[in-house]
Design a protein that fits this description.
Layout (H helix, E strand, L loop, with lengths): L13 H13 L7 E2 L3 E2 L3 E2 L4 E3 L7 E2 L9 E3 L1 E3 L5 E10 H5 L12 E3 L3 E9 L5 E10 L5 E10 L10 E6 L3 E2 L4 E9 L7 E8 L5 E4 L5 E2 L6 E4 L4 E9 L7 E11 L18 E7 L4 H10 L4 E7 L4 E8 L5 E6 L2 E7 L20 H8 L4 E4 L6 E6 L4 E6 L2 E7 L3
Parallel strand pairs: 1-12, 2-12, 3-12, 14-22
Antiparallel strand pairs: 4-10, 5-10, 6-9, 7-11, 8-10, 11-12, 13-15, 15-20, 16-17, 16-19, 16-21, 17-18, 21-22, 23-24, 23-30, 24-25, 25-26, 27-28, 28-29, 29-30
Length: about 400
């Protein structure tokens, strides 16, 4: 097996340890293919060339314990354009580590003797904007040794220098069902000349990225949120209201940017089209608020729970009763504590997880968490209502149109 030079070693011991690690790996000659440390090129403008070489990159091979043996590099295949492996040099370990990378040019096949390293250089010359990857494989008596290469080509056009400013503002970075949320953006003209298109992008917990267009729709295609805007120093509202109940729990990230009016941004190279830096703001949508999670972390799940979800959009009212320690009752509305009182103690209860009882909870979710209920009974007088009972837990849940209306646990 073969291993390339490790650039993370401290300088004082670099030469000795590098040589030892290379040689120790190669001493197990030939039974398995080796993977050299990848070469990751910096972002490089189209038509220009980036080069990696000793001593800052892992681009050398030797044989034997402490580079004490002799071996042969027979040939090399790859890489394809826009990468190249070039400038092979047979160096001493000292030359390699001091960056004397071109002291002794050589060609393949080459015999690498004791105390020597075959150094090579990698180049990247992108022919277009985008991400590239490739590989090169050295043939040796120890088997093939492969090095992977990657790099990104960027536009050589630096773009316009006149820029505006856009910033995102969220009313809160943590929300729960029933919470109100405000999303605003603030613009400033700065040095921007002419108008701009505004882009608003939402990143969802699933990883999906969607653009909000000027019709109020969401789409995976690149579309502006506002077109041909005369940018002024102002603040505008994107959204204000309750968080949609059916939204998935998780982390959301919002982005906004100005683009020079009429230009279509290139995802591989945004620089020429951007009329402002990209603004970003994130929030977490979860079943419980940070205050509620803090109480549970300190005291565990409550012994008894009462939850009522009413209205459209629903308001979630909860009562948590803790019997252990100091008996306490806490009242919540949409995750915000309304009161906390000391109450009379009593026997403990089922200690169910409050995060289960959200306005979007369904019978399927309830069954997945708690198992099959004792009974599910449709209401004879209220269409759309069901009563779900877990007798062993002392739990009764009322579903309205398939989603949570109320839940209560009682002692047995």
């Amino acid at each position: 097996m073969i291993r390339s030079r490790d650039r993370s070693l401290i300088p004082l011991f670099r030469a000795a340890v590098v040589a030892a690690s290379l040689a120790a790996m190669l001493a197990t000659a030939g039974r398995a293919a080796a993977q050299l440390t990848p070469i990751n090129f910096p972002d490089t403008p189209v038509g220009q060339t980036s080069t990696v070489k000793c001593p800052t990159n892992s681009v050398g091979i030797c044989f034997g314990q402490n580079c004490s043996a002799t071996g042969t590099i027979q040939g090399i295949t790859g890489p394809d354009r826009p990468f190249k492996i070039t400038k092979l040099n047979l160096l001493t370990v000292s030359q390699f580590n001091t960056g004397t990378c071109e002291a002794s040019p050589t060609a393949l096949p080459v015999t690498v003797g004791p105390g020597k390293i075959l150094a090579f250089q990698g180049t990247f010359t992108p022919t277009s904007v985008g991400t590239f990857s490739g590989s090169a494989t050295f043939s040796t008596p120890a088997g093939p040794a492969t090095v992977n290469l990657s790099g990104k080509g960027v536009s050589s056009n630096p773009g316009r220098t006149d820029k505006g400013l856009i910033a995102l503002q969220l009313s809160s970075n943590t929300v729960v069902p029933g919470s109100a949320l405000g999303i605003q953006y603030r613009t400033a003209r700065k040095t921007l000349q002419g108008n701009a298109d505004l882009y608003f992008v939402a990143g969802f917990p699933s990883g999906q990225i969607l653009f909000v267009n000027d019709q109020g729709g969401v789409t995976p295609s690149i579309q502006p949120f506002r077109r041909n805007v005369n940018v002024t120093d102002t603040t505008q509202t994107v959204f204000s209201g309750p968080v949609p109940i059916d939204a998935a729990f998780g982390n959301y990230t919002f982005y906004m940017a100005m683009v020079y009016a009429g230009m279509t941004p290139d995802p591989n190279n945004l620089t020429p089209s951007l009329a402002s830096p990209i603004a970003q703001a994130s929030l977490t949508y979860s079943a419980l608020s940070p205050d509620q999670r803090s109480i549970i972390a300190a005291r565990g799940n409550p012994d008894f729970i009462s939850v009522l979800s009413v209205g459209s959009p629903p308001v979630k009212r909860e009562a948590w009763l803790f019997q252990s320690g100091t008996p306490t009752q806490i009242l919540w509305v949409n995750g915000v504590k309304q009161s906390q009182d000391t109450v009379s103690g009593g026997p403990g209860g089922p200690k169910l997880d409050p995060s289960l009882f959200t306005p979007q909870m369904t019978l399927g979710q309830l069954t997945a968490a708690l198992g099959p209920p004792t009974s599910v009974t449709p209401s004879p007088i209220a269409p759309g209502y069901q009563t779900v009972v877990y007798r062993a837990l002392g739990l009764t849940v009322i579903l309205k149109d398939g989603q949570l209306g109320s839940a209560v646990t009682v002692g047995q």
